[in-house]
Amino acid sequence: MNNRKVLILLLSLVFIVSLAAVTGCEEPVEEEPVEEVEEPEEVDEPEEVAEEPEEDISIDIVVGFGAGGSNDLTARYMAEHLAEFGIMANVINMPGGMSTEAAYHVSGQSPDADMFFWGHTGPLLFEPAAGDRGYTIDDFEPVATLAAPTFCIGARPGAPWGDDFEALIEYIEENPGEVTFGGQGEGNVRHYAVEQILPPDELDYTFVGLEGGADVAMNLQGEHVDVGHLSLAAASPLVADEELWAVVNTNPLVERDPLMPDVPNVAEFGIEEGREPHPIALWAVPGTDPALIERLTNAIEEIAQKPELLDSFEEMGVVAHYMGPEETWDFYMNVQENVVPDYMEWLEAYTAEGN
């Protein structure tokens, strides 16, 4: 072998050995561990359960006045809408004793009878205060208030004071003994309300007890009395025909009645005590199923906002005004504490005078 071939062979060996050495010195590249991603566990979603409609139920609502009046009609309009909530309400008229007979009847019923009383402060507060009626308001618990009838002071057509309350006061003051007032009976809570508005110890006029609102309206039209106390509903068509004037209203919950929004409330003249506290509420006997009471309360709250009911009430001069059980009870307790004692004092004085 010649020297050139030997040299080439040696160089080749050196190159191979060097390459092997370089390769062997390189650090191995560590591969980063791959994180395992946990698959989310499958969760069984709850199946939507459709709410079962409440079963229809039948109840009785006892009204202490005859058919056709504001107490009766408000109960019937309410009953009509209660049917939309599966509550079939049978309205029963039981007139007598200014609604005390109806209240007494319901107060003696079993809680399971599902019988309710549709009434206001007259039979529940003023009548029991005036004498033993066989029950008190504590024999009832409130469900909800829905209606507030509006009464007014009306004046005969052509009266010199027109529909101006302050002018009426001025006329009585300047003409003592000349003005005759027609009231709905004598010695009752409506007579009391009139005297809160027109105090007889300050104003000299003659009070005549008539047989009710219709009789008052007839006597005003015939000009047999100069001023009278009647419902705004009874006055409204007569005012429209210019057969009498509506001077002031006495609603306890609102100042202006939508039926006749131009007629001011007595409160606007600073006579708060002249606002007749007679909102009508539904009452149960203690022990009535709380679930039924809640169902009725919730239904009445929705009914109070229905345009159809609002329109029906407005035509009667009744304001649809919802108050729940607690608010209703507070309203009645306020009347019992602050109005009934004054009424009793007035009644005793009126009776002592030989009336």
Average pLDDT, all residues: 88
Note the gap between the termini.
162 Å
Largest sheet: 6 strands, mixed
Morphology call: globular
Radius of gyration: 40 Å
Count of helices? 12
Strands in their spatial order, largest beta sheet: 2-1-3-10-4-11
Instruction: Please report the total strand number as a whole number.
Output: 11
The SSE order reads HEHEHEHEEHEHEHEHEEHHEHH
The chain-level structural class is alpha/beta
Helix content: 25-40%
List keywords for this structure.
11 strands, alpha/beta, 18% strand, 12 helices, five-stranded mixed sheet, 355 residues, six-stranded mixed sheet
Descriptive overview:
The chain is 40% helix and 18% strand. It is built from 12 helices and 11 strands. The strands form 2 sheets. A 6-stranded mixed sheet has the order 2-1-3-10-4-11, with helices on both faces. The chain has a 5-stranded mixed sheet with strand order 7-6-8-5-9, sandwiched between helices. The radius of gyration is 40 Å and the shape is globular. The chain starts with a helix and ends with a helix.
